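Dock zinc ion; give full complex structure.
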Amino acid sequence: MTDLTSKSCSSCFKDIDARALRCPFCTQRQADVVGLYRDVPGRALGGVCAAFAQHFNWDVTLMRIAFIASLAITGGLVLWVYVAAWLMTPGPPHGKAPLAKLFDALGNLFSPKQGAVQRVS
Ligand SMILES: [Zn+2]
């Protein structure tokens, strides 16, 4: 059975917090760390606030309050940042971001055969 609250550092093998991005002892970035993703528990709309909150270990409520406050202050400009962040953040942990999927789809439209190796001349 796996302990969900701690793991051993992938470099120095000391016990560290399971969600730690870096080891507090040797400061190595952990091998099992995945990037930002939106399929996290507690997502409300696009999951961007929840994703950032989980990734940086922030409080999701404070994150949303800060987001809504900055929406009001900037007159909605931050909404475009939200949309951009949504486009560039994959849903599942090892999935592809919507923007990456779009580029893949566009690339397949113009390439003669799927999986063909592109020649660089
Ligand atoms: Zn370590």
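Observed: The radius of gyration is 19 Å.
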